[in-house]
Amino acid sequence: MVDDEGLLLALLNTTPTISGEVTDLLADPETARAWLTEHAGEEALGEDLGLLRSTRDTLQALIHDRAAPAALAPALDGVGYRPLLDDTGLAWRLSTPRDHALAARAVVAWDALRRTAPGRLRACENTDECTLFLVDRSKSNSARWCSMAGCGNRMKARRHYERRRNTRAAD
Ligand SMILES: [Zn+2]
């Protein structure tokens, strides 16, 4: 189980590029089942996969400035906040229909990030080989790759190679 921001990032990252091909972990019933159980437990198995995938596609397009937020409407159908009273006072809890709880939580997390940490949710800069996203929590706001170990090192190696090649060409 992950928090809503973790869920959002995991959902955005269900279309990794593997051996040069963009794959969709939610397209296949087997891998989709495994993903749902891992990120939201058994109760998530009733999630509407079609809606979850279209919500993910819209969120990815939004990050790339290729969609409008209105396209997220189906994920928020029937979603609201419920007041919850206990000894400490009043709290508001997100209330979602069962069949698209994850889609709704991802959209709410996306909106919260957009307001509290604008520009921090972005695509990995290794766009030629990678289709993953990251949330940059660094002070300097300078994270550019989905992971330093993966794309970070690959990009550094490539830049180094290109610099050397350019230097040689100038000789
Ligand atoms: Zn990457």
Task: Give a summary of the structure in a few sentences.
The protein has 171 residues and is α+β, with helices and mostly antiparallel strands.
Give me the Rg, rounded.
Answer: 19 Å
Beta-strand content: 5-15%
- Average pLDDT taken over every residue: 93
**Separate helix tally:** 5
- Spatial arrangement of strands, main beta sheet: 1-2
CATH topology: Jann2411-like fold
CATH architectural type: Orthogonal Bundle
Extended strand count: 6
Ends distance = 57 Å
Main pleated-sheet profile:
2 strands, antiparallel
Q: What global shape is seen? A: elongated
Count of folded domains:
1
Name of the CATH class: Mainly Alpha
For CATH, the homologous superfamily is named as Jann2411-like domain
Question: How much helix, percentage-wise, in residues?
Answer: 40-55%
Bound molecules: zinc ion
Structural class comes to: alpha+beta
Order of helices and strands: HEEHHEEHEEH
> Low-confidence parts lasting 5 or more residues at pLDDT below 50?
none
